[in-house]
Design a protein that fits this description.
Strand content: 15-25%
Radius of gyration: 18 Å
Number of strands: 11
Number of helices: 5
Order of helices and strands: HEHEHHEEEEEEEEEH
Oligomer: single chain
Helix content: 10-25%
Largest sheet: 7 strands, antiparallel
Distance between the termini: 37 Å
């Protein structure tokens, strides 16, 4: 259980940097169960060529897998979210609860820079709090050597030069770039590496720019990711700061065309 002081510090880091770590969220027995289950699912799965930068990319619905259902209702994780003020986040409210098993295979290539927010035409893009975030449960220790996460802190709230150079994420182009693309795989002067331990949980705002390095080892690096959303159009109870006018005046009945490309709502 997070103390109030630690929970507040992690929330502030999430708000300002765009990511946070919750250590030792999975006990060893549950971690072992998840490792065995994911290895079985990976063995029965053929990696799609378009996912070569992401590694194995296996979607598993909670309704189809008891262990995944257990993970998506894991009390210590949701107690930590609640302590941080994120108790209103739940698995993506628009679809059945599911996870994505993601790997970096032995010798696997790096993952390109991208962000996962798909609503850049919506004023919610200016939200000073997270609206949509990933929960990534790590089943393997990570370091630079096996392709740990790297992020550009603050890139969920502020436009950086790289924003205007990137190919749009995933199916909109990034999956098909050359392996040596000089922008998509470059080291950025603002980047930070985020190594974690097996059993840790990483929270990440969908808007933050992130990537992962090449796996130089002969061991697979695995995580289980689930997308979580809070109630749209509401202000979190903990938020005492100003609410951006674009959000205050947002029409909740309007339909905003989806886009992965950061537009006018992401300011320099």
């Amino acid at each position: 259980m997070l103390t109030a002081e630690v929970a507040l510090a992690k929330r502030e880091h999430m708000l300002h940097a765009g990511y946070a770590l919750i250590e030792n969220i999975l006990p060893q027995d549950f971690l072992d169960e998840l490792r065995a289950e994911t290895e079985g699912l990976i063995a029965a799965h053929e990696e799609a060529p378009e996912h070569r930068f992401q590694g194995q990319h296996i979607k598993v619905a909670a309704k189809d897998n008891a262990l995944i259902k257990k993970l998506l209702t894991w009390a210590p994780a949701y107690q930590a979210l609640d302590a941080m003020g994120f108790g209103d986040f739940r698995p993506d409210r628009d679809r059945p609860a599911e996870v994505i098993i993601l790997t970096k295979e032995p010798g696997g290539p790096p993952l390109y820079w991208h962000q996962d927010w798909m609503w850049w035409n919506d004023p919610l893009s200016m939200s000073p709090w997270p609206e949509f975030m990933s929960l990534s449960y790590y089943l393997t220790d990570t370091a630079v050597e096996n392709g740990c996460l790297k992020v550009i802190p603050g890139s969920h709230l502020k436009r950086f030069p790289i924003h205007d150079e990137l190919v749009p994420a995933h199916e909109q182009g990034a999956r098909f770039v050359a392996d040596d693309d000089p922008v998509m795989f470059r080291d950025d002067p603002n980047q930070a590496f985020v190594p974690v331990k097996a059993g840790d949980l990483a929270l990440m705002d969908a808007r933050i720019l992130h990537a992962a390095g090449k796996n130089f080892t002969d061991q697979r690096r695995t995580l289980v990711l689930s997308w979580h959303r809070r109630p749209t159009g509401t202000v979190p109870d903990y938020w005492k700061g100003a609410v951006p006018p674009a959000i205050r005046e947002r029409d909740p009945k309007a339909e905003y065309e989806g886009s992965r490309i950061p537009r006018a709502f992401l300011k320099p």
